[in-house]
Structure formats: structure tokens, C-alpha cells
Amino acid sequence: MTGGTRTSIGRHCSTIVGGDGTPLLICPRDWDGPILERKEIPGNAECGAQYSGMPLVIVPLSGHGKRRFRSGSTIQEFDTAPPNILIYGETFERDHGLWKGEAGESITLTLPSAVTTRYCKDDRSSYRFNTRFNNDDPWLRNSIITLAEEIQSAFPNGRLFSEGLSIAIVGWLVARYGDKAQRNPSVLRGFSSAQKARIEDFIDSHLDQNMSIERMASEVSMSPRLFSRFFSISYGQSPHRYLMRKRIVRAKQLMRCQSELSILEVALHTGFSSQAHFCFAFRKYCGETPTAWRYGL
Question: What is the band of 123 on the pLDDT scale with cuts at 50, 70, 90?
């Protein structure tokens, strides 16, 4: 496609749909993290003027080829192929784009400024990202793919896991691709004793409720990103893993002491969104199903 009207980057790429005609990957309406989509990568194609508008990460899953972008008098030519990823800053613009190669598929992650600000509000780093092509970044690539799979599969590890992964991805982007990023020395320490007591009391008294990292972070007046980093230093594990272990310990207590409760009731009493989520987590951490554990099968 060509023409004089500016469009957002990726608009020319078709969304990948399933057998029912709906997008394979679509974020739920109540999802307030980064926006992920599965997109086709064109083989031989071209487009006119395009802009990013907000930070955009493209993770190619298949396909390869040569790219030629023109912005004013500047021309950029490069090859693209997995596993390298492309990062567009929010101010990136090009007048013309040309693709030649083999078509493929990709995952795109779009990062609205409101998400970055909410996750990293007490970070001293710049939230502006530089455009960089062909980045060899296995951690970022694998994390975005994992997050996409979680969302596409309706969060089998729970919303808290995906929230924590989103925060880690945004923090990684800020620290490594932000413009004039500066490390905050305070992240090298963990929580104070008073903060740990407050966090543990909050978690213990809300185990039966839906919990988010953002809500836990507000108990100690921190951003989700800084809270997650302090938490890992203080407890040697992520908030998600800590909470899952706490919930499973509570679930075992209920199954041992209140035999009249069904597996579904145990799940709901310990903050799991469903019986399936509880059984998935229990097997992951204990190596057997709740029923097998309860009856010693």
C-alpha cells in the first residue's frame, strides 16, 4: 500500500485470526497492562508515511527479509529475522517503507504512556525509548512471547503472574532502552522490617481475595516496578510465587481441617479464580492434584 495519508505503524499488517474469525490474541477489556496482538508480517509490500505514536516492540516469530525505511533524506536498510526484535520509540516516523522477503507472523507489544507511568512512577529513568532495529535480547523476546501465551490462554497462571511479567517487561525496557536511563541506587536494598510486616499482614488478611501487585505496592507507597524489585531482594522470589505458596499452604490447611469443603470451595476460599486455576497451580507447586493430595492417592 502507498499513499499520502499517515497511518500508525502496523496498520498495514493483518491481525491473525482463529477458525471462528476472531483474533487469536486479544487483551480482555479489563486488562490495564501493555497491549499485545498477533500480526502477519508481509513478504513483499510497501507503505507510505507512518508513525509510532507510542513505544512499540515487534517480536518476529517466523519469516525474514530485507527492510528499507526512508525518513526525509535518511535511508535505513537492514535484514530482519527471528530471534531479533524491533523497538520503535514513540516519536518514530518514516515517509516510506519497503519489505522484500518471506512472509511470517509476529507478536506486537504496544506500551501506552499511562502504563509506563503507573508501573514506574517513582523511577528516575526516562520513559522515552530510542528506536532500535535487530535487537538480540533473548529475555525480552521470551518474556513477551510468554505474556502473549498467558493472555491468549485466558491466564492459566493467574492475572497476578501476567501483571508481574508485564511490570518486569516495562522495567526492562526502561532500564535498557530508555533515553538517558539512570539507575536508582535505592533499588539495591530491600524492605524495612516495618514494611515487611505491613506487606505480610496485608497478604495474610487478603488471601481469599483477588490481589494485584499494584494494590500490594500501594500498602508501602511504591510503584509496582520498585515494589517488585524490593520484594525479590527481601524474599528471594517474585510476589506471584510468594502469594501462590501462601495460598497453597492455606488450601492444604482447609482440606485437612474442613473435609466438608469441595475442591471448588477450597479454591474460592484461597483466592483462586476457579477450580481449574487452583488445580493447575497446586499441581505445579506440589506435583499432584488437590484431590490426590487430600486422599493420599
Answer: low
pTM: 0.84
Q: Which CATH class is domain 247-295?
A: mainly alpha
Model confidence at 187: pLDDT above 50: no
Q: How far apart are CA 103 and CA 105, in angstroms?
A: 7
Check pLDDT > 80 for residue 127: no
CA 276 to chain centre: 22
pLDDT tens readout for residues 42-71:
888 888 888 888 899 999 999 988 988 988
Residue 186 has pLDDT above 50, yes or no: no
Q: Which fold has domain 7-177?
A: Jelly Rolls (2.60.120)
Distance CA 203, CA 222 (A): 16
**Assigned C-alpha cell, 14:** 493483518
